[in-house]
User: Fold isochorismate synthase from Halomonas dongshanensis.
Amino acid sequence: MSALWSTDAQALDTALAHLHAELDRVANAPSPAALVRLEVSFCVTHLPAWLNAQTLLPRLYWRSREAGSIAYAAVGAAHEVASLDELRAALAQSGSTASDYFGGIAFDAAGTAWPGFGACRFVLPRVVVAVSADKTTLALNLRFDGTPHALEIARARDTLAQLVAARPLPHWTPTAFERFDTPDRATWCRWVEEATAPNALAQLPKVVLSRQTRLACIAPPSPWALLARWQARAPHCFHLGAQFTHEDTLIACSPERLYRREQRSLTSEALAGTWPRWVRGHERRNTQALLDDAKNDGENRWVQADITKRLSPLTTQLDVAPAEVVTLPSLYHLRRRVNATLTTAIDDAALLETLPPTPAVGGVPRDRALAFIRTHESHARGWYSGAFGRISRDTSELAVTLRSALVNTKGICLHAGAGIVAGSRPEAEWAELDHKIADVMALLGIA
Assistant:
């Protein structure tokens, strides 16, 4: 092992000794608080490598898209919730102690769930490593919610005993994949033609249809190694990972924020309208042309109008910024930011009950779009186009889980969607799906 990784091992030994001493102190306290957080300075060379080395589940990763954002890697669970009502109650019980829950929700709570993920799952991790520009910490969470104190402390010690230092990520050589698209191209074209028929558009002006691309192979890459390579190519995206079982890991580099909340201040966005950056002859697309394009602008305005309509009853102030173009490695997106001030009664559970799925991933009107999707799509979206992020009493941020990959021992499932509106052409929308998975396909060595 190199000196660099040996330093990580020494740092872990030092941190563990400190935390065990702190656990002794908590054990001897006459009446510890309901939630106890123990924190120590730490050193880790590479967060995805640290996660890859751990055996504890769940394993979670989160980093916001803003430069300088804190990156979080978490393992184990001090507490879990499986509904938004449970999340609301857990945050209310946390008092003044900082407690970050990490997790997400599915695109459609009534749809088919991915095994291990469910419709909603948020975790107060047992252990969290947080890396910022000026420090790195390792935190241990204890939750005394009726559990005997000695048992909770014993569980914490057991978790610490299973932590290991980071190791270099496994090398992966691009290999042959067998590709399966659901739906296939012919079926997709029929869907688009059905959705764009005049009588259909009169009832459903926009529906977002998705495709699952399954890449089967004998030895898929480590999901955490793939995430590390992917996030290097997408620095301006949200980076996330969730592994609840040994079979499946969700990773994503998403360009879209669902919302960010700081106390009562809220920021959301309408991200809809897409062009590839490169077209015939390899010339660069003109971003002003995307701003001027009626089809894409109309699609974006539907999303913005729906978000503002849903937020209006929850806010005391709301405004929308002018449209702008978001530049990604393979694509341009149209975005309008939405800024609001929440009423005092609104919490994260209320926001998650209200906002998703937005028309950027579902359609307009929502109920008819969901009915169309449930009737046509045979693959399980699961957490694709749902939401994932970090929630606490004071600040929360969630991304829409786009540009994602579900990795297991049999291969990789990629999902992509396209907004179908008046003027949508089946072949062009199929090509857009390929553009949206192009970055991860390139990482896998697939042209």
About this structure: Residues 178-219+257-443 form a domain with the Anthranilate synthase fold (CATH 3.60.120.10). The chain has 13 helices and 22 strands. The chain has a mean pLDDT of 93. The CA atoms of residues 35 and 94 lie 6 Å apart.
